[in-house]
């Protein structure tokens, strides 16, 4: 029986940019896996090249290093099944890990002395079939190796889009569906794992199974959020809806945490999935002394307002930023401002500290990209990323602000990375 909770829980992401040492190990090729693997027809797609091993033994976190014995560059799901079958039927099975875009932070897509399957190599062999939109436009069949940015671009060509996203889109479908896929749409639509109709999965016994809430449902629910431990996703069927053209994007500042969370909770309590007038996105973040009120996630505040925001931060040391978005298109552009005003009426942000932007839908969804490119150009992208994601019950979120945001993050001056905090309806 499904249980639904009326009380929201808070999602917080604390992302600290710092320089830690990596732990390094070395392994010899084929010291753990039977060299018989090289007699299979996938032999030519296996690599023990030092650069392939190096690539597969690190991730975006740059904190752990785990050395595989080989990397498989599959050109089809059958290649993956051949590898899994060889391990499963071997007297000494070895570990296998699917690697999407490698944006995990603690080695989740790595494997010690086993084989890493580089899912992205399938992309070039799909011959344009990696993202297929149904004729009625209700869903897209998407390869597990596809990046969400490519899913967005392909579906937008038909005026459609999925409804639930992550903040950053250069992640694979298989990678985020193995976690959760959480962002500012989650309060309304649920995480990405709640927005999947069915999947094709290769199991640990190398069986090809299609699963959904009605068919092989145990596998379906195990794989979604299963960290790649229950099978390899080769296709996911993602629901689509008509895509908006543009969005109104609003940020409001608070110096009082309970007022900030009170407004967040009020907003998510009012905005149901089928309510056409509802907000489409809600998040929140901390502004601390980082030099500029715009952090790497996106530049937002007008330059002329930077001095007044900076002096606010200097005075209070931490400011809370409530961020919301409302979609619109040609049919709704005239009523849009009024609807937004209505939605934000009665909120208690600091007078004079509401900022708005009007941008294309794709620019909003892909907002982290410009920050990524900036950090890359400064050599600050491929650095260690200690990163903590937590769900915190509503009853504890004020204590978390006092103990962690103020007591640790602020006291220890850990102000270099973004800290996000936003509520999610548990029933989603
Ligand atoms: C800058 C940045 C921003 C982010 N923002 C968000 C956010 O807003 N919301 C959010 O929810 N997450 C966010 N993440 C986290 C991200 O969703 C996860 O790290 C995700 O796993 C990354 O996808 P990937 O393709 O890089 O997966 P990988 O790191 O390659 O793999 C992740 C896990 O999935 C498994 N896996 C990969 N492909 C498959 C497959 N086809 N079948 C089965 N298992 C598979 C791997 O074995 C591993 O366990 C962010 C990450 C970064 C770096």
From TrEMBL:
Whichever gene encodes this chain, its name is LOC111285989
Is the Manganese keyword given for this protein?
Answer: no
To which species is this protein native? Durio zibethinus
Pfam families registered for this protein in UniProt: Cytokin-bind, FAD_binding_4
Matches recorded under SUPFAM superfamilies:
FAD-binding/transporter-associated domain-like (SSF56176), FAD-linked oxidases, C-terminal domain (SSF55103)
Reaction catalysis annotation: N(6)-dimethylallyladenine + A + H2O = 3-methyl-2-butenal + adenine + AH2
Protein name as catalogued: cytokinin dehydrogenase
At the highest ranks, the source species' classification is: Eukaryota, Viridiplantae, Streptophyta, Embryophyta, Tracheophyta
Top-rank taxon: Eukaryota
GO function terms (MF aspect): cytokinin dehydrogenase activity; FAD binding
Per the UniProt record, which EC number(s) apply here?
1.5.99.12
Q: Name one GO biological process term.
A: cytokinin metabolic process
Coiled-coil annotation: which residues? none
Instruction: Give the EC class as a word.
Output: oxidoreductase
Cofactor(s) of this protein: FAD
Q: Which residues cross the membrane?
A: 6-26
The FAD-binding PCMH-type domain is annotated at: 64-243
Q: Give UniProt keywords alphabetically.
A: FAD, Flavoprotein, Membrane, Oxidoreductase, Transmembrane, Transmembrane helix
Keyword Plastid annotated: no
To which protein family does this belong? Belongs to the oxygen-dependent FAD-linked oxidoreductase family.
